[in-house]
Amino acid sequence: MADKGGAYGTKASDTDFRKKWDKEEYAERARKKDQEEKERMQENENRMKQGKKPLKGRRDDLPKPTELMKQREAPLELDKNLGKTMVVQNPGGRGPGQPGFYCEACNRTYKDSVGYLDHINSRAHLRVLGQTTRVARSTLAQVQARIAFLREKTKAASAAKAFDFDQRLAEVKAKEAALREQKKAAKKAEKEKARLELINDTAVDQDDDMSKLMGFGGFGTTKK
Amino acid sequence: MANTTVSGALAIHGQNPQFLVETIIRNRIYDSTYWKEHCFALTAETLIDKAIETRYVGGVYSNQRPTQFICLVLKLLQIQPEKEILVEYLRADEFKYLRALAALYIRLTFRAVDVYELLEPLLKDYSKLRLRDVSGFHLTYMDEFVYNLLTEERESELEQEQKQKQEPQPGREQRQKPHTKQVTLRRWVPICFEKSVEVAVGLKIPFTQSQYLSR
Ligand SMILES: [Zn+2]
């Protein structure tokens, strides 16, 4: 096949929708993979000679962790989607959009919260985040400052609550009074309406008699 | 790692401080969601927030589930804060659960002299504490809680070592004498915080509350 034509020089256009593979690129990728594998084998051989255990997978070239282990800032919200029906956007593939808990940093999905929690507390995950497994030591000054801060906060909160209480009491009272007024007004209106209706009815009745007699309806509006 | 004791920690009573919590309870704590989600990477500073959020003291409840309180005790054992920090915890009198937490930790780890010196003033703290155990919620008070810490062998499912025995203090032998007896008698007290009145009376605890206060 010198050129990509049909047997009689006709070009099939009905298969154009098919994916065109960039063969060069894939060949390059395969070469790279082979090269890596070869290097790994060579290194393993060297290790074997030195009496060390061979490496299993290929090593990630992550920089050495520099930060200390840190607390997660945002709450995890593990039960955020509890009881919800979700659309699976990526069926059968790896990566996000799969059912379960997804770790963005490591591109892994976990089926349950326990596995996910274990993962995000794990050394591997911390490594990706650039954290060591050591936690910072708090100083006395930090602790004192934190307690002072929390003390102020709770004091402010309790003060706000007390203030709210009086205000809310007044609010409730006002609301109740308004409701009572409204009820009263509604009742009054209803009474008035009933009275008017009664008057109208008698008036209409009288008119009816008259109209029958005369053969036509009354003057003016027929609205009640 | 998430469950290892901080490196450079001092051994307490000759072992890893975390071993002061019984193995079964400890493993239950490691498995609990609260531990994994909220106790991860806590420092002495951030632990204060969590301690204030706790609503009751206790060891385990219902089906041997660990309370948040006991999780935080284990966390303290893990990170081993400095003595001054714990004193600071004790001094925050409006945060009673933080105070109770510090009191229990001090009782577990400090030398006998320090324990008495630090905890005795708390016998004048009459604030209410909620206590949760297998049978449900109970009401207790800070002075009662601390009194139990000073006199009882087992508190909150923790294996408290008989540290008074290890470090005899001059002038306090009288207090330490009945200790071995306490150990044998109190070993059968099954559930945390559930103190048996008969045992307490039968032991004739040599230092009563009034004696503490008059000293
Ligand atoms: Zn991860």
From TrEMBL, chain A:
- Name the PROSITE patterns for this protein: ZINC_FINGER_C2H2_1
Q: Does the keyword Kinase apply?
A: no
> Basic and acidic residues composition bias: which ranges?
13-48, 57-70
According to its UniProt entry, the protein's GO biological process terms are: mRNA splicing, via spliceosome
InterPro entries for the chain? Matrin/U1-like-C_Znf_C2H2, Snu23, Znf_C2H2_jaz, Znf_C2H2_sf, Znf_C2H2_type
Region: Disordered, residue numbers = 1-70
- Tagged with keyword Zinc: yes
Ranges for the C2H2-type domain? 103-125
What are the coiled-coil residue ranges? 169-206
Its Gene Ontology cellular component terms are: spliceosomal complex; U4/U6 x U5 tri-snRNP complex
List, alphabetically, the SMART domains matched. ZnF_U1
Q: Which UniProt keywords apply?
A: Coiled coil, Metal-binding, Nucleus, Zinc, Zinc-finger
* GO molecular-function term, one example from the UniProt record: zinc ion binding
What's the protein here called? Zinc-finger double-stranded RNA-binding
Q: Native species of this protein? A: Lyophyllum shimeji
From TrEMBL, chain B:
Organism superkingdom: Eukaryota
Family affiliation: Belongs to the PRP38 family.
Q: Which GO terms describe its biological process?
A: mRNA splicing, via spliceosome
According to the UniProt record, one GO cellular component term is: spliceosomal complex
Localization annotation: Nucleus
Q: Please report the name of this protein according to its UniProt entry.
A: Pre-mRNA-splicing factor 38
Q: One Pfam family of this protein, by short name?
A: PRP38
Bias regions of kind Basic and acidic residues — which residues?
160-176
Q: Tell me which species this is from.
A: Lyophyllum shimeji
